[in-house]
User: Fold this.
Amino acid sequence: MDNQSEISENKEKHEEIQTAQQKIALYVVQNYQDVNKIEFRECNKIEGIGYDAWSVSVEVNESHTISFSMDDLSNVEDATVRHNPTTFKLEKKDEDLNLDLNDVDIIYWEDE
Assistant:
């Protein structure tokens, strides 16, 4: 019974990570120009005393790294977004167009 519970918990965590990655990919496409490839490098849970957080690192177009930090994977819209301004050269979009992910090559990070 414990094994079945662990399998169910792992599946739920995997689905939560996949959903968060899709939301992050959509954020990148809607906020930056000329995005054609997104590769998720890592997705780490940071456990502290009384506090957990998530860190997700993304490479855009093979040369622009952007990081997202959030309290909970279900709250991607509240994530803190960081990038190095000297190496991240993607232009911000002036307006949020309702673009989808159909024309973007996405490589998702898989929990090992």
Summary: The chain has one helix and five strands. The two ends are 23 Å apart (CA to CA).
